[in-house]
Amino acid sequence: MDLLSNLSLGFATAFTLQNLAYCFIGCVLGTLIGVLPGLGPIATIAMLLPATYALPPIAALIMLAGIYYGAQYGGSTTAILINIPGESSSVVTAIDGYKMARNGRAGVALFTAGMGSFFAGCVATLVLAAFAAPLSELAFKFGPAEYFSLMVLGLIGAVVLASGSLIKAIAMIILGLLLGLVGTDVNSGTARYSFDIPQLTDGLGFVAVAMGVFGFAEIMANLEQKENRETFLDKVTNLWPTKTDFKRMVMPILRGTTLGSVLGILPGGGAALAAFGAYSLEKKVSKYGHEFGKGAIEGVAAPESANNAAAQTSFIPLLTLGIPPNAVMALMVGAMTIHNIQPGPQVMTSNPALFWGLIASMWIGNFMLIILNLPMIGVWVKLLTIPYRHLYPAILVFCCIGVYSVNNTVFDIYLTAGFGILGYLFMKFKCEAPPLLLGFVLGPMMEENFRRALLLSRGDYTVFVTRPLSACLLAAAAFLVVIVMLPAFKKTREEAFVED
Amino acid sequence: MRIKDKKDFASGLMFIAFGAFFAILARGYQMGTAAKMGSGYFPFWLGVLLGVLGLIVLLKSLAASSEDHDLGKWDWKTVLWITGAVILFAVILQFLGLILSIIILVFFSALASHEFNWKQTLVSSLILIAICYGAFVWGLKLQFPVWPPFLVG
After folding, report:
1. Which of A370, B11, B112, B131 could share a disulfide with B81, CB 3.0–4.6 Å?
2. Under an 8 A CB cutoff, do A220 and B78 touch?
3. What is the pLDDT of residue A230?
4. Could you tell me which of A362, A286, A245, A281 has the C-alpha nearest to residue A92?
5. How confident is the model at residue A498 (pLDDT cuts 50, 70, 90)?
């Protein structure tokens, strides 16, 4: 069995003392930022990217992955206890989870979320291991035209399912692509948009852009709002669910895991969408559908399993095709390039220990998280009492140090400050920033494949539609756009994303 | 004519400005042909596309069918304090070193909050210095001027 030998290689890699330690650190940090409102995984991973320089690549990736799925756990804690979803993927958990907390069942809700996430994480790890190999085989058949079309599909997929205006989201992608082109053009050696500033000829710093648009802008937006929370911090007593609770949570967890695993793989899928999908599915099929919104345990179990499953399977497109399906995965691309690993199908063959080690570490990480979260819930709950005014100067300090240490230059700090203001404008104009980051990462790759495809076809644009694989991918992208434009879908989409 | 959706109107203008900026500058680079693209080809057409999308967003914001949206409240004071504190940090880092710069960054950014408190800010800056020194200078061995260079030589 290939799968077994691969997995055992993975576990052998992940079970070294060093990698276990970084996995643990990642999980702790992830839970921490998930719990702390106003600090998302995108900003945190961007903040910690430079800190992973000194680490070996596998340890760095294990730690960053741990932050990502750890944040999914932590986010649900705040959603349940204080009705503030730490992550966008916990928005739906807050609906029934918070109601359960108000009914005095906070502990049970937390336990359900933890169990669901753990189970989903285990299954998703297996899915990842099983699907990775065949998909990378497929990727080797891809030429430049196919890669270009795949990126188009990925980018379109990432925005049609997001909230807000579709045109604005696409415009944000294009702006991201353009920002990604700043710097020296690899083909001609021309420095583009650099204005003779030497630091700009290497391109805009990835960390600076991400940190400015997410980290700084989030702080500014958070400071505008007054702190105001109603909490159930002292009411976390009985964790253990009753027998009926157990019975009621089994099927939702299974369905949530399945749906989440599928949606995570799709371009543009990801945790938030999976959680929402699982919640609405459960509401339809469950015989307790009428209890939804009033504290139904299914309303916690299903979305929590789904978002964790999706968080993990969204690594599949990244690891096999080299295409990040969401903004966090775009950061993982950044992390891999920092360590001179070109994400894509060749990672699995050229660096199997890294590939399978990362996958195995996810299972280990999930196990650590359940221990971190359930018995130690009291510690995390205490953290919720830290007021934001003590938190944000700390975030600023870490951001500045992080940005500086990428290239040891203060220029990047100025750049981050500039992008912080830009990010604030985006928020005020209701333009979503995650598509911009995706575009920014894919910009150079997209131009390269676009150029190569047209070079091979001698300037014939039909190459994108005459090659069958490429045509299918583009057709899928067009199909997505058309569906979203349909009035019926538009309405449900708007309803789906009404958060309050 | 009345602008109904001011948020979209402003975004449209922003996209057009960015699109024009990238497209116009791209004209200065080698354009080439589709088969043999120069460095200006891809950014030029992306810039044009961005401008067109911006125009659509802008026109839609004027349509009678669009919803009313104001630009909302702008808290420039916070933006300036935060951005200013960060820029100040960057300026003084080389001259005053990491430790003093952290204190200054924490104090200036804390002033952006409505509930500033001297003692608490001092405590949190000391804690941050301890964490940063431990994690970045001692643990990860990142290169920083820790103390003012003119003091330690």
Report:
1. B112
2. yes
3. 52
4. A281
5. very low
Task: State the number of CA atoms in the 13 A half-sphere of A188 facing the CB.
Answer: 17
Strands A183-184 and A191-192: antiparallel
For A54, the closest of B8, B54, B140 (CB atoms) is B140
Partners of residue B14 in chain A, C-beta under 8 Å: 425, 429, 431
**CA–CA gap between residue A410 and residue A412 (Å, rounded):** 5
Please report whether residue B139 resides in a domain: yes
The whole domain housing B148 covers: 76-152
Judge whether B22 and A178 are in contact, CB under 8 Å.
yes
Q: Are A111 and A240 in contact (CB under 8 A)?
A: yes
Mean pLDDT for each consecutive 10-residue tract of chain B (153 residues)?
82 94 90 85 93 93 78 82 92 88 89 80 88 78 77 67
Structural domains counted in chain B: 2
Instruction: Kindly state whether residues B58 and B82 are assigned to the same domain.
Output: no
Distance CA A24, CA A266 (A): 29
Question: Does a structural domain hold residue B1?
Answer: no
- Please tell me the predicted confidence (pLDDT) of residue A316: 84
| CA A456 to chain CA mean position, Å | 35
Mutation target for B interface from A400, A442, A450: give the one with most B CBs within 10 A.
Answer: A400
Contact between A50 and A406 under an 8 Å Cβ cutoff? The reply is yes
Q: Is residue B95 in some structural domain?
A: yes
Give which of A238, A294, A298 is closest to A107, Cα–Cα: A238
Reading the block at residue A6, the tokens are 């691969």
pLDDT in tens, A223-257: 877 655 555 555 566 667 778 887 888 888 999 89
pLDDT exceeds cutoff 70 at A496: no
Single out the residue of A304, A273, A299 nearest to residue A285, CA to CA: A299
3-state secondary structure chain B: CCCCEHHHHHHHHHHHHHHHHHHHHHHCCCCECCCCECCCHHHHHHHHHHHHHHHHHHHHHHCCCCCCECCCCCCHHHHHHHHHHHHHHHHHHHHHHHHHHHHHHHHHHHCCCCCCCHHHHHHHHHHHHHHHHHHHHHHCCCCCCCCCHHHHC
Task: Check A428 against B72: CB less than 8 A apart.
Answer: yes
**pLDDT (0 to 100) of residue B20:** 95
Q: Which of A262, A46, A457, A186 is nearest to B33 (CA)?
A: A457
Same domain flag for B57 and B81:
no
Same domain, B55 and B111: no
ipTM: 0.91
Mean pLDDT for A77-90 is 73
| Identity of the residue in B34, B37, B136 whose CB atom sits nearest the CB atom of A401 | B136
Question: Tokens 């937006």 map to which residue?
Answer: A221
